[in-house]
Structures are given as structure tokens and as C-alpha cells.
Amino acid sequence: MDPISVGLLLALAGGAGDALGRDAWSGLRALVRRPFRHGSGAVDAPQLGEAELEELERAPTDRTAAQALSTALAARADADPNDLADLQRWHEQARRVRFEEGDVRNMISGGTFYGPVVQGRDFPGASFVTGPPADRPAPRTPPAQG
Q: How far apart are CA 53 and CA 29, in angstroms?
């Protein structure tokens, strides 16, 4: 199985994808918290991956925590064929969550601006229509050179 992407784990932990993302995160939480059985059938305590999941929930932007969870999930999948199958099914569903990796930084500076401002990252399918500003002062004309 391919490792679970650190970017996907960070996005889901941070709340990406609205309801679908929350459902995916809840599904992963349930998967990690169910009893883990390795080849001998014995149940491990504490659960493999539970501490990593809790750490990522506490710090949803921590790449190290996301990497640790990805590694723990891979170890679970390697040790138990049932976990492997369930994790593969979860991963297929989670990959449907739409998110983009990267930070969003919006800044307005350096002048006087008139009109509405829309800040964000992605606005798929959105269109913006504006009319002329109602109370805009007349533009300045530079002094004549002469």
C-alpha cells in the first residue's frame, strides 16, 4: 500500500473538505482506535497509531506529527491484513476530499483602495461582478511640467 500522504493528513486534521473531510477524519479516528491485532492475534495496547493521531489532532499543522501518523498507519497495514484492507478503502475515500497543499497569505497594503475585497485561496466556479464605485474621489492629475 502507498503511504498516506502527509499533505492529506494535515489537510484533514486542519478541517479541509468541509463535511466530507470531517467524515474522512472521523473514519480514520475510528480505524486507529479499534483494537489492533498483529499476526499472533494478540491485541496491542496502546493502539498502534493512537498517540500519533492524538498528537496531530493537538497540532494539526505539525508536519512531523503527520509523518509519524503516516508511518504508524503503514506499520498497522503491514502487520494486519484486515487493517490493510480497511485502510486502503479509507484512503480511496479520503483522496476524494478536495484540498490544496500550501499556505494562504492575503495582504492588502501600499495605497488607498476603493471597493470590495475578497480574500481566500480558491474560488472554483465563482464569478464576481462589480459596478462603478459610488463615492470615489476624482483621480489626481499630476502637475504640468513646464
A: 7
Domain chopping of the chain, boundaries: 6-94
Work out the end-to-end distance of the chain between its first and last CA atoms, rounded to an integer number of angstroms: 76
Alpha helices in the chain (DSSP H): 6-13, 18-33, 50-58, 63-79, 81-94
Q: C-alpha 107: how far from its chain's center? A: 22
Question: pTM for the full model?
Answer: 0.62
Contact of 119 with 106, CB cutoff 8 Å:
yes
Q: In this structure, how many other beta carbons lie within 10 angstroms of the beta carbon of residue 74?
A: 17
Express as a percent the part of the chain with pLDDT over 70.
Answer: 71
CB half-sphere exposure, 63, CA atoms < 13 A? 3
